[in-house]
Specification:
Elements lengths: L1 H15 L9 H25 L5 H12 L4
């Protein structure tokens, strides 16, 4: 499942990331962002399974906030 999500999301992330310099590694950055997002989803799902009634969305926000603070 992780690989399927990665294969679906990484190209989309690559298209949306701004170029940082000529010849930049958008695909590498997209891979890093996508892998981080999937890891956050998995961590939130694991927490959700042990916390009855906790909203998955809030747990996902907390997990993603640990990687990059929300503004």
């Amino acid at each position: 499942r992780r690989l399927l999500l990665f294969d679906l999301l990484a190209p989309q992330a690559s298209q949306r990331l701004p170029a940082t310099s000529p010849g930049d590694a958008a695909d590498l950055r997209a891979a890093a962002v996508t892998s981080s997002a999937i890891a956050c989803l998995e961590a939130a799902q694991a927490a959700w399974a042990t916390r009855p009634g906790a909203p998955l969305g809030a747990l996902l926000d907390d997990a993603m906030g640990a990687v990059a603070p929300l503004h």
